[in-house]
Design brief:
By secondary structure, the protein is α/β, with parallel strands linked by helices. The protein contains ten helices and 15 strands. The strands form three sheets. Strands 3, 4, 5, 6, 7, 14 and 15 form a seven-stranded mixed beta sheet that branches. The chain has a six-stranded parallel beta sheet with strand order 10-9-8-11-12-13, sandwiched between helices.
């Protein structure tokens, strides 16, 4: 098969479409013929040499895919050859074939195009696990989403709207904020021109955000804590603004607030399977009903992953950038 390889870390040009050995499904795994994958920030970090795959995972980038099952490993039940699926991966999505633990498979939701289904696993699992399973967002609470026009952000807006929450977002342009509003965001904050702490205080009559979904890390830590409501929950899922910052524990104590930080890639198989099962139970019916949908900025050939990475690094996109396998 062919896959995107990274012979040496570097810029987008470090991604090389090359022939590699076919993967073989082991116990509890299936082999998927990939139709599409999607670009995530973690893929960019891996390309740069900062985020190696966990032990035993594929060395090729790609944390999600959609496609068709072509073989079942020993001990797999509930799935059949030919099933159209999408999957959460620890790596290997930028390839013509990938092996997937059966617990990380999801059926393609009725009404969703097979290619576009590649935009779903990472965002739905990240948002559901952090905003709902960890931070326990409830109806009528306020959710602040940083990077509202990203793949994560566009899904967080839709899922929070579906449960009846009030949604505030940050983004860097009017175009992106307008799109967030179309998806259901109530409070639109241009982080280049406005202070999100002051805007959240104004929008909530001084109460603050009950839940904050943060992709920035260190750069926003202090202001995120300031923006939290009493009993607020800050969920950190990214480090685009650095990894080290000072935390005022006194403010945190005064608000009886909580800070969590999670990632999906390195979790044990059992934890990933539990998240995938929860997503299938709670999010998939919303997709089938049309209340939630994947947001795709563009599709590019998988062999042109370098261009896709450049698009994501330039932050000019809205939603996900897909990589489509040859012949798909």
């Amino acid at each position: 098969m062919y896959a995107i390889t990274i012979p040496e870390p570097g810029g987008p040009e470090a991604l090389v479409w090359a022939e590699v050995p076919d993967p073989v499904p082991a116990e509890g795994e299936v082999l998927v013929e990939v139709v599409a994958s999607a670009v995530n920030r973690a893929d960019i970090m891996q390309r740069q040499g900062f985020y190696n795959p966990p032990p035993g995972a594929s060395v090729y980038p790609g944390l999600e895919c959609s496609g068709r099952i072509t073989a079942l490993g020993p001990g797999v039940s509930g799935w059949s050859v030919g099933d159209e699926v999408c999957a959460l991966l620890a790596g290997g999505g930028y390839a013509e074939k990938v092996v997937v633990p059966a617990g990380q498979l999801l059926p393609v939701p009725q009404g969703i195009d097979l290619k576009q289904a590649a935009a779903l696993p990472e965002v739905t699992c990240t948002v559901w696990s952090n905003v709902f399973m960890v931070a326990h967002l409830r109806p009528a609470e306020t959710l602040l989403v940083h990077g509202g026009s990203s793949g994560i952000g566009t899904m967080a807006i839709q899922l929070a709207k579906a449960v009846g929450a009030k949604i505030a977002v940050t983004a860097g342009s009017k175009e992106k904020l307008d799109y967030c509003a179309e998806l259901g965001a109530d409070v639109l904050i241009n982080y280049r021109e406005q202070d999100f702490v002051a805007e959240i205080e104004r929008a909530t009559d001084g109460a603050g955000a009950d839940v904050i979904l943060d992709n920035m890390g260190a750069k926003y830590l202090d202001r995120n804590v300031q923006a939290l409501a009493v009993n607020g929950r800050l969920a950190i899922i990214g480090l685009q603004g650095g990894s080290k910052a000072e935390l005022n524990i006194g403010v945190l104590l005064g608000k009886r607030a909580a800070v969590s930080a999670t990632s999906l890639r390195a979790r044990p198989l059992g934890e990933k399977a539990a998240i995938v099962a929860a997503v299938r139970e709670h999010v998939w019916p919303l997709l089938v009903a049309g209340h939630v949908r994947p947001v795709v900025d563009r599709e590019l050939p998988m062999s042109d992953a370098a261009t896709a990475h450049q698009v994501v690094e330039d932050s000019g996109h809205i939603g996900k950038v897909l990589l489509v396998a040859p012949g798909a």
